[in-house]
Amino acid sequence: MRFTRRGTIYILLSIAFFLIASLNKIKPIYYISTCMLSLTAASCLYAYLTLRGIRAERILSEKGVFAGEEIMLSARVKNGSGRIIPQLMLRDRLPVSSGAAEALIMIENLAPYEALDVEYQVVMARRGIYSDNKLYIEAIDPLGIFQMRHNALPSQSVTVYPAPVPLTIPAANAGYSRRVGDNLSKLAPEGRETFAGLRDYHQGDDLKRIHWKATARMGKLFVKEFERDAVPAAIILLDARSTCSTGFKVEGALDDAIIAAVSLGVSLLKGRVRLYFQINSDGSDEVLPVNRHHFYNILAGLAALKCRPGKPLSEVLTRSILENKPGTNIYVISSDPDLLLADNIIAAGARGISVFLISLDASTYAKKAGTGWRKRYTAARQEQSRRLEMAGLSPVNIKNGDDMAEAFKYWGRLFGI
What we know:
This protein is α/β, with parallel strands linked by helices. The chain has helices spanning about 5-25, 25-50, 210-220, 255-270, 295-305, 315-325, 340-350, 370-390, 405-410; strands at about 1-5, 55-60, 65, 70-80, 85-95, 105-110, 115-125, 130, 135-140, 145-150, 160, 195-200, 220-230, 235-240, 275-280, 285-290, 330-335, 355-360, 395-400. The strands form 5 sheets. Strands 16-15-14-17-18-19 form a 6-stranded mixed sheet, sandwiched between helices. Helix 1 runs antiparallel to helix 2 and helix 6 (about 315-325) packs parallel to helix 7. It is elongated, with a radius of gyration of 29 Å. The N and C termini lie far apart (about 60 Å).
């Protein structure tokens, strides 16, 4: 409960008049202040009685949406009292971090025992899993003095997936739809399957591929893994560390790094590539297979991803190079100006593995960074670029505010898929 701005001024004047009248024994002002305070009490009682018996509940038509898209929300407001409610306000307040504007819906003349369904849409601007969103039902007295509210039933979580953008990569953009959800319906690569071995079960794996004998023998779920003939393999290595190996804080670039990873993943899968995701964060760098069964699970993980300490990028990349077969493409997305990356990429080429670097300039994302930090970071990036150029390598360089599709446009010729 709270007073409106008008009500705050009104109650302060009432108290001031009452004090003046009491100290100076001025009866007319005393009577006026008493009437004003009585009116305030009546306004509070009116708002209380209006909300008494009112119940509100949010109903989600969809629990997941891509960033930048509208989510359809609905709420059911029920009048459990035996009187007409002249006016109510429904306020849906989503977390500020979601970038969604507050939704305000006015409800008038709600009949006794009537249940009203209200539908509205909000645009979710930023990825994340939002579970602390609040739905309020409010009542204001006719004079606009007092406002009372109560929370609806427990809030439901909304998952906002990072939205991919269409990238210009040869043989990867056929049939790309403007609605991002349509691009995830046909992601499984084609090709003749041959048995390759067993691996641990991941959420989203087809239950038909569980190897029950190995599961019973080892005490945990194993699935059969297959290789597809003539289908190239690709690994997207996303560096999600808060501090890179050179000591710079680079967490500001994480959102664009995730968008680049998802966009690249969708485009590669459109080009019929056997794809794996690897995230270097929180001491873990597990390689996850990607197909239409896993992709939404990976998107949900990326929606909630935050910067954490992790292993040095060059160490993770070296192990990935050693564990993969010739012909594999590895796409590294990082803000780390690690000078060892050029050596790693050259070593990968000697093994028949192609490594492509998508480099984000963290200095353009760090708004509060000092001038000295920016100079040192920029110098480290320039030295890294010089070494890469000496090795004949051309990374994609992305700065804050860049059009990602344009950044990849002139680099597409390097993707030999």
